[in-house]
Amino acid sequence: KAQAAGASRAFCREHFLSYPRLREWRDVHRQLAQTVDELGWKRSSVDPAKPEGSRAIHRALLAGLLGNVGVKDEAEGHYDGARGIKFWIHPGSGTKKPGKWILAAELVETTRLYARTVASIDPKWVEEVGAHVLKRHAERPHWEKSRAQVVAIERGTLYGLPVYADRRVGVRDAGVARPIFLRSALVEGDYETRAPFFAHNRRLVHEIERLEHKSRRPDILVDDELITAFYDARVPQDIASGADFEKWRKEAERAQPKLLFLRREDLMRHEAAGITTENFPHEVQLGANRFALEYHFEPGSAKDGVTLTVPVALLNQVPEARCEWLVPGLLKEKVQALARGMPQRLRAKLGPLGEFAQGFAAQVPPSDAPLAAALARHIRERFNLEVPADAFRPDSAPPHLRMNFRVLDENGRHLGMGRNLQELKGEFGARTQKIFADESLDKYTGWTFGDLDEVMEIRRAGQTLIGYPAVADAGDAVTLQVFDSPEKARATHRAGVLRLLRIAFRDRVRDLERSLAKNMALASLKDDLVSAALERTVLAEGLPLRQADFARRVAEGRGRLSLIAQELERMAATILAERAQLEKRIAGLQKAFPAPAEDVRAQLSRLLAPGFLARTPWERLQHLPRYLKAAALRLEKLRGDPARDAARAAELAPLEQAFRREAAARARPRRRPAQLAPFGWLR
User: Fold this and answer.
1) What are the E-state strand segments in 452-536?
2) CB 243 within 8 A of CB 170
3) How far is CA 42 from the centre of its chain?
4) What is the mean pLDDT of each run of 10 residues along the chain (683 residues)?
5) What pLDDT does residue 57 have?
6) Which residues pair with 83 in a beta bridge?
7) Cα angle vertex 80, ends 74, 84, to 5°?
8) 71-104 per-position pLDDT tens digit
9) In terms of Cα–Cα distance, which of 76, 164, 89, 170 is closest to 128?
10) What's the burial of 526, exposed, middle or buried (CB within 10 Å: 0-12/13-18/19+)?
11) DSSP string covering 293-325
């Protein structure tokens, strides 16, 4: 033993170790080993020389040295320690690359506070070993639907050092979690369950919310606090998560199946008078189809008011005039707004506007007539007062009193939305015609395809499309096509029938064209004159739709075509001669009187626009020479009294402007007054 002790002392001196301290370590090791054996614990088989062995030793030391943990401050280069201290690694510690988290065997303060004998550690060890002193701070508790529980964001600190942050943990405190669970899961409906009460209550809330949107009153549904109080009075105080709630609910509903069912009177502050399906229908019948209606109350939003959902295939068949009437529940408000926008001198004669609007809504049922025209007619019948339809300005009604249109494609996807139906038709209406194009048939050089119906129905994907068949010009033949509007079909059918007539009278047409080609003045009007002759010969009775009717007209017209063509030739020659004289007068006065000369030139352009022979009805065509002579006479008198001409022009100007405004609306179906064309000939 003495020899071994001497060798140990020599080893310690050679390696600069303290022999007494080495003996103390051996005594401590022996005592610990004895204690482990007495307790029957299993000794570790990890080799201290290996990495896993050193980690095990460091974890063991960490349990007693939690106050010597440090986290590196990357900006300053020091380590933040427990309770706000700062220290640096001593240069003689022998650690070349310490990690972000370290454990020090001792902290010694000399010129600085230094850590000696340090090792890198995993911060997870701190959480595991120091759980008893770790402080946890939960913040921002909130409901998570996927976990069906209230979750908070937790951070943990060890003597002020941040061990972890932004950890999502379930809130165990029922006092905190329960109110959030009741409001978010049960009241707001952010919860997945098959419980019958849940579906019933959500459906009832949605029904009352729809009443608010229809009536445009946001005070029918009670606030969330009262609904929360309903659940608070029935759900036990210790229930704060989805799992606990489902377990309790199943037991409770065995005794009281309707325990959590809300009643209509529980959710309504007051009755929504007049909010019935009759006044606010879920859908509207337009032609052969029904369109869904949706109500939304959000002033300023694009969806505010009533929205009509229309498949793109039916877009062109939605009548704009009918949609101006909205729904019965909003008609009174719209009429009152339109009446309020009338000139004061007319508005004052209607009496109280509320009573006037109520009377109109009760007495005049919705129709396909424009709402302004119906209002004007009602005022004329009831008050014996003439009111022009343009006295009702559409912009006097707020946006929610104009129908909103949502257009869906063939697969139900959203294409567009807006309150201007004409713009939507212009943007998406071409898709409808593509559907009708599928109905086109082969080419024909004669009327051998049978009779045409004025209107036809096409069933596509459960929808009824209303089509208007027509004969279309295809150059040297015709085809059968179907259109989505009668205006398009009528214009196309006229051109197609004229093509069939040219084919049926091909010999007469060829002779006529040869004769016209010899006349230099009429050569430019050759095609127009032939079309006009065929129009007057065969189409004076209107456009034929029956095969027998077309054949009869062709047979009857064979003996008249040449005579009518000769008469049109003479008329065309007279018109061209008068035009030549008028153009000379215009050129002579252009510099001296530019405004009147330009006015007459514009009139001449309108009267004799390309295609005027075929387009102008015969009863008007024979007056064109007189109109041209009248224009020449105006220019002849202009030099003698230009002031008189200016006064007459100023007197006519307001009527001219009004006519042009109305003519601009011709592109809008159902808005063409029957008196518009005759008025145009009076200009």
Assistant:
1) 456-460, 463-473, 478-483
2) no
3) 72
4) 73 87 89 90 77 82 90 88 91 79 90 90 90 90 92 92 90 90 92 92 89 80 87 92 93 91 83 77 85 90 92 86 92 92 87 91 90 91 85 87 91 90 85 65 84 82 79 90 84 92 91 84 87 90 91 90 90 92 89 88 90 87 91 88 87 78 56 59 64
5) 83
6) none
7) 145
8) 999 888 899 999 989 999 988 776 778 889 999 9
9) 164
10) middle
11) EEEE--TTSTT-EEEEEEEGGGGGGS-HHHHTT
- Sort strands 101-109 and 69-72 into parallel, antiparallel or unpaired: antiparallel
Q: DSSP label at 660?
A: H
Furthest-apart CA pair in the chain: how many Å?
Answer: 154
In the DSSP assignment, the letter for residue 616 is S
Q: Which two tokens stand for residue 20?
A: 């007494």
Q: Are 436 and 484 in contact (CB under 8 A)?
A: yes
What b/e sequence results for 563-578 when a residue is b if at least 16 CB atoms lie within 10 Å of its CB, and e otherwise?
ebbeebbebbeebbeb
Write down the residue that tokens 């997945």 correspond to: 192
Measured in residues, the chain has a length of 683
Q: CB pairs under 8 A, 24+ apart, for 134-140?
A: 134/158, 134/163, 138/169, 138/171
Q: How many CA atoms lie within 13 A of 531 on its CB side?
A: 18
C-alpha–C-alpha distance, residues 242 and 644, integer Å? 91
